[in-house]
């Protein structure tokens, strides 16, 4: 059958994000394929499909969303059988509609069937993360505030999940425990106070490392500002309190709101003037975007 190659009108809104290097992606895709292939390979396909059989199919979106994860899907097919051709019709960041055709895949049928689930798992999950991020980014588009993710990522998937957040129009918070200081209430309690925690952190890390302090009240915020931290995490504050907090900061630190933020509540939070809003469920609970292989 003929394959449509035109890009749907809605997919013209693409967030341009540099792709992750293949050297980062290949170990992840390879490990996932090995998990699926086990000790004997695809015994179902190998028993039923003749080795010489060839096929042609399409990746198709079955619901609206934002595309992410094409490179991982392409790698899954290539690692199973280098003879499989993968021709992308869209790019990561494309706005999908139900029925949008994403790619054409053709080649040895056995390899296509073996790689299918791994490719779709990555594509559906990462497109789900990008779609969830876009739901917040779109809701606050009129404000200067940006949505950012957290370290609440699925084990082993942090780099690609954070990539999908960027594809969806969001920004990344720290990648791990080693690239920024985030002092929370437990750190403060064990250090014996806010000043002690901040001073110990500042003495221990290099001048390139930013220090963020979590605060729950305006009184704590006042102490944080006196200590000159780089970022304040305004945790679980309602919009009126957030607005007061932003006025208190007055540009002396980056402000970040957190706490049960949804597409419905995000605009009121962004309207307070905060610089960032941290949303953990973008990565730990994003719903898979339904994408399938259709003949």
UniProtKB/TrEMBL annotation:
Keywords: Glycosyltransferase, Pyridine nucleotide biosynthesis, Transferase. Pathway: Cofactor biosynthesis; NAD(+) biosynthesis; nicotinate D-ribonucleotide from quinolinate: step 1/1. GO terms for cellular component: cytoplasm. The keyword Transferase applies. Residues 42-127 form the Quinolinate phosphoribosyl transferase N-terminal domain. Residues 129-294 form the Quinolinate phosphoribosyl transferase C-terminal domain. Gene3D superfamilies: Aldolase class I, Quinolinate phosphoribosyl transferase, N-terminal domain. One of its GO terms (biological process) is NAD+ biosynthetic process. InterPro entries: Aldolase_TIM, NadC, NadC/ModD, Nicotinate_pribotase-like_C, Quinolinate_PRibosylTase_N_sf, Quinolinate_PRibosylTrfase_C, Quinolinate_PRibosylTrfase_N. Pfam families: QRPTase_C, QRPTase_N. The keyword Lyase does not apply. One of its GO terms (molecular function) is nicotinate-nucleotide diphosphorylase (carboxylating) activity. It is an enzyme of class 2 (transferase). Its EC number is 2.4.2.19. It catalyses: nicotinate beta-D-ribonucleotide + CO2 + diphosphate = quinolinate + 5-phospho-alpha-D-ribose 1-diphosphate + 2 H(+). It comes from the Bacteria. Involved in the catabolism of quinolinic acid (QA). Hexamer formed by 3 homodimers. Belongs to the NadC/ModD family. This is Probable nicotinate-nucleotide pyrophosphorylase [carboxylating]. It comes from Bordetella genomosp. 5.
